[in-house]
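Hi D.,

Good news: the full-assembly prediction came through. Inputs first.
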Amino acid sequence: SQELEQSPQSLIVQEGKNLTINCTSSKTLYGLYWYKQKYGEGLIFLMMLQKGGEEKSHEKITAKLDEKKQQSSLHITASQPSHAGIYLCGAARNRDDKIIFGKGTRLHILP
Amino acid sequence: EAGVVQSPRYKIIEKKQPVAFWCNPISGHNTLYWYLQNLGQGPELLIRYENEEAVDDSQLPKDRFSAERLKGVDSTLKIQPAELGDSAVYLCASSRVGGRTDTQYFGPGTRLTVL
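Then the structure:
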């Protein structure tokens, strides 16, 4: 079965620093989603990547999908307290497949 | 545009009691999903609806879980009877059209505690 591995599991970063979260699959993916979840709340959609080599940015968050479509990274520039939360990647192998989620990366921002 | 609405936000019950969760998807979204999220894990799909039809319920424990979406809009997920292991967050999501990889928008979830 398809599994998504996220790394690191947790991350503590000083406010203002940059950081990167990774999501890796052993199989080629059809689409890769990044969500953010505040503790005790639902998931907030960030970005979707579908093409090999694709890169998208929103404010200070940039997500990339590698050429093989098996790995994605999420990069946050000049982190702020509002970036704290759990970042989840989700992916499907084809258009008709259900989305499988990783276990998430817990990000803490130190003031 | 209002997001996905879920109620209640929190529910505490004793084991063997029934419980129900309600979800109202984003207006115009035909596809509705129910997910289970255990602590420290990502969401896992329980059931997916296309309008009124349950098109994927393979992960729904049918001995105690049931769901319905009678008019193709609101949906209810029920557990009867609840067990201790059912304590988790139950998330509802919706997407505009069919196709499992369409962007899904999530509600705030219902946190269930079974004592």
